[in-house]
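User: I've been trying to design a sequence by hand for this structure and keep getting stuck. Would you show me what you'd pick, starting by listing the structure so we're on the same page?

Assistant: Good idea, let's start from the same input. This is the structure you sent:
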């Protein structure tokens, strides 16, 4: 593992030395698009950037979180593409691969996590205009990147028993360390620009709240008003969409919050229960949390070093 880490460092040095004399990337049909950025000897094209941007927008809209301003979102998407390209270049030079079987197994786990099968996952992807082949390739790339990152941090993560005890002491009475068992009832709106449809959904949301407050079960009320009931499970505030954060934090156990208008419709939230997160965590849970925090910090620092030693040329309109 240490030899592999040295190999990664060697690659970084090579990038630094060759930066001024990098070969011009070979032209392909994909490169007929405008070039958004050059990363060492590879291009990030306008088409690739647009696909990533559109997919990110769809994910934000579906999550119910507020959309960043256009410039911030474009910067975040481009930085993500640059990071991905740099890491895949290093992984390739270190001959890191994953098998088709590993990719297929990971995709099946993703489908299971989303309470569906492979056919259902493909149908969901079709709704986001993302082909299964593209999705499969992205999963492969992410698995390779994880393999590379693990090689970088291997042997450098250490969490002591004192660290675990200190974490418990620091967060025992932390108000921000609460967890909430939340149910999300969505009254969908297919066209947010249609004021009549939005108003109708709002009326249904208010009637749904009245019905639940009158003693009906939330699931029964959701079915009555053609809404979707989803138990989000236990979440910290940071794990919830920003639209939900304040309403959930200020709602008593068993209470309702909303209606909250999001791009996909009106949300009515039900706080099923509350608890202190730290008290529910085992020592192993805390140890894993602290290890992941250490790893994330090291990887962030490592990525910053890669940026310093690589040749990155971003088109002026994206700077």
């Amino acid at each position: 593992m240490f030899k592999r880490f040295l190999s990664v460092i060697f690659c970084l040095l090579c990038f630094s030395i060759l930066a001024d004399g990098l070969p011009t990337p070979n032209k392909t049909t994909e490169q007929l698009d405008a070039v958004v950025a050059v990363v060492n000897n590879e291009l990030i094209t306008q088409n690739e950037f647009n696909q990533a941007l559109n997919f990110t927008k769809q994910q934000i809209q579906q999550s119910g979180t507020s959309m960043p301003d256009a410039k911030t979102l474009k910067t975040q998407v481009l930085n993500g593409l640059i990071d991905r390209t740099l890491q895949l270049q290093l992984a390739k030079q270190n001959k890191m691969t994953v098998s088709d079987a590993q990719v297929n197994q990971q995709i099946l786990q993703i489908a299971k996590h989303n309470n569906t099968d492979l056919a259902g996952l493909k149908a969901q992807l079709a709704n986001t205009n993302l082909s299964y082949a593209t999705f499969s390739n992205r999963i492969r790339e992410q698995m390779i990147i994880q393999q590379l990152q693990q090689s970088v941090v291997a042997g450098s993560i250490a969490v002591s028993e004192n660290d675990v005890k200190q974490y418990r002491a620091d967060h025992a009475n932390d108000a921000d360390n609460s967890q909430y068992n939340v149910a999300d009832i969505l009254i969908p709106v297919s066209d947010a620009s249609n004021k009549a449809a939005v108003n109708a959904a709002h009326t249904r949301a208010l009637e749904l709240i009245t019905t639940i407050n009158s003693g009906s079960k939330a699931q029964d009320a959701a079915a009555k008003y053609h809404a979707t009931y989803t138990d989000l499970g236990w979440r910290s505030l940071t794990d919830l969409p920003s639209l939900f954060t304040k309403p959930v934090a200020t709602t008593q156990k068993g209470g309702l919050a909303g209606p909250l208008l999001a791009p996909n419709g009106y949300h009515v939230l039900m706080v099923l229960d509350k608890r202190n997160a730290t008290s529910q965590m085992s020592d192993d849970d805390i140890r894993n949390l602290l290890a992941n925090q250490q790893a994330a910090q090291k990887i962030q620092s490592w990525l910053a070093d890669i940026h310093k030693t690589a040749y990155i040329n971003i088109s002026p309109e994206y700077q």
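That's my pick for every position. To get oriented when you compare it with your attempt: The chain has two domains: 2-155+287-318, 174-279. Residues 283-309 form the longest helix (27 residues).
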